[in-house]
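Exercise 3.2. Students should predict the tertiary structure of the chain below and write it as structure tokens, then compare their answer with the key that follows.

Predict this chain's 3D structure.
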Amino acid sequence: MRLFPITLFLFFSCALPLKAAWWAENDYTWGSQGFKKESLSFFKTVSSGAVIGLNAGFFKNDGIYNDETYVLKMPLLYSSRNYFLSFKPFYYLENSDIGSNAYGGKIYFMYHFGEKPSSFSDDDDYTHLILSVSAARQQTIVLRNSLSKKVNFKEASFEAQVEKNFYNQFFLLASGALFRSFNGIKQTELQNPALDHSELSFMGTFASITDLPKHILNIQFARNLAPKEHSHLYFGLSRINMDNSPNAYSAIAGMRTKINPKTSFDLAYNWLKFDNISTRNYYKLLFQIFF
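Answer key:
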């Protein structure tokens, strides 16, 4: 599931009370150099606060390879009054064109801090502390001593976020993530990596980043336009530092709104600039429906 982080709690706080037995969403991204990414997700409530999901998707990374990379995920979600918890295992099917596959998981925990009554609105302010830990094992081709061979190596990331709501009208989130690769793997050795690192932490871009990142800093802002309809504009800026490949700046602007009580969509634009590489542009359309 690829929701903009600042809307994650808003999504579940409005989704679960609907008591929908299940819902679905389609997330489609396209952009520079023939990039395409699409996923279809189904979610089912199993209790008042627990949700289980199934996600299948693919991406074709900037038209470099002929084949798509396919991904399967099964997110498990639990929401209570004071915290939100999720676990998302994922599996990348082996791509015959690039000869790589991966699997791993992400644990995401959000704590809801004390409320302060607001004279501006009937809704209360809140603060969220969000922590996530991710790990993955990837099999891919490396080039060492002029010889190509498949190797397995591990990766991990840690992410921290703080989100603040003002009068239930303005939302500000700052986050940072650290990445680590193991088994002596270097970015310069990798030939055909498949893992999209947005599986591990929020990357601040719609592009699939398969090169090894080192750390990321993000700041995001959202403005609620119509609280009763859960419509808002959001903006984000990110700095992505890579391991021996060009660093990047990213900016996102989008709008998420409900068409009616059971359907909503998210339309967004992403500007991405790698050092010494021309600007890239990406677009996302996410459609969601409750049953």
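Discussion points: The two ends are 18 Å apart (CA to CA). The first strand starts at residue 22 and ends at 31.
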